[in-house]
Amino acid sequence: MRFSSQLFSVVAIGLAVSACNSVDYKKTKGGMPYQLFSSEKGDSVKPGSIIKIAFNQKIKDSTMYPPAGQPATPVYFQVTPDSQPYDISEVLTHLKEGDSVYAVQLIDTFMARIAKNPQSQPLPPQFKKGDKIVTTLKVMKVFQSPQEAQADEAQERMNAFKNDNKIQQQLTADQKKIQDYLTQNGIQAQKVGLGTFVQVLTPGAEPKVTDGKYVSLKYKGQTFAGTVFDTNMDNSFNHTDPLGFVVGGSPMIKGFEEGIKGLGKGAKARLYIPSPLAYGAQSPSPDIKANENLIFDIEVLDVTNQAPTANMQPSPNNGGAGR
Fold first, then answer.
1. Do 99 and 17 have their domain in common?
2. Which EC numbers does the record give (predicted)?
């Protein structure tokens, strides 16, 4: 992935610093030692800024972030005006795009502060006296708007998806299973986007569903074995309000979003979604197995340019509605 080399450069900075005994650390107001590697130019990080960082955190030889088995993906967040003492948040507003930081937090210091304040939250049991947390980060981007940050994050997720060999192997296998199912049952469906199959049952009218549009719809999600795990088409899951969301700006599963694009108001369709475009290995429901292909029945109720004042979005359970 294209951000891997950037994260490696941050870790390399940390290794270089730790190998040098003569490094002069600065200290935050809360007493955290850190070393700043400043870029020549770049937009400053301010309270309210949305930033993208490469981030790595270790204790002894164990990596705390990213979690074991997960790729080193960039972290996106909005900087708040508040900071915690003896924490990396103390230095954020002193940085600019391109800057890197190497910081050290001593577990002994945390223990001493907790001893002075018994109401403090206790340390996790794996943190031992004499340990230290080493954090390295690089400010990769300071965004000018939330929309710019959302677009960048979406692109990073897409890059990660396309470059994950395990996911791509699963996608290829699942697409074949779905294509075989469609052929065996005489179903005419079109493959769209990254691999969702769409069977249009009732053509809709203008306007069409596109990125940025607000869509409201009815849905029913089920497995290929016929187990329904969520729906708002009837009261079996205790919610019948339409699902409403902005296309391209909501945390919907990939297959659900790409499957409804191009459908018009009043359209009815059935989506056949390969597991990597659904919930993958992380099932949100006992009714959905890991790496299980899914089917969604869709009825598009309305397509508008913006969300209504009263957001119609319900809170579907069992991981339904493509969340």
1. yes
2. 5.2.1.8
What is the average pLDDT across 276-287? 92
CB atoms within 10 A of CB 205: 11
Q: Assign residue 12 the CATH number of its domain.
A: 3.10.50.40
Report the pLDDT value the prediction gives residue 4, as an integer from 0 to 100. Answer: 31
310 lies in some domain:
no
Query: What is residue 49's three-state secondary structure?
Result: coil
Residues 144, 184 within the same domain: no
Longest dimension (CA), the chain: 73
Q: What are phi and psi of 276, to 5 degrees?
A: -65, -20
Nearest to 174 by CA among 296, 280, 285: 280
Residue 249's domain spans which residues?
170-304
Structural domain includes residue 321: no
C-beta separation of 295 from 271 below 8 A: yes
Burial annotation 211-242 (CB, 10 A radius, 16+ → b, else e): eebbbbbbbbbbeeeeebbbbbeeeebebeeb
Residue 29 lies in a domain: yes
Cα 69 from chain centre = 16
Structural domains counted in the chain: 2
Measured between alpha carbons, how far apart are the two ends of the chain, in Å? 25
Please enumerate in sequence order all residues whose Cβ is within 8 A of that of 148, keeping only pairs 6 or more positions apart, or say none. none
d(CA 205, CA 222): 26
pLDDT for 72-123, tens place per residue?
Answer: 889 999 999 999 999 999 999 999 999 999 999 999 999 999 999 888 888 8
Of the candidates 71, 291, 257, the one whose C-alpha atom is nearest the C-alpha of residue 164 is 71
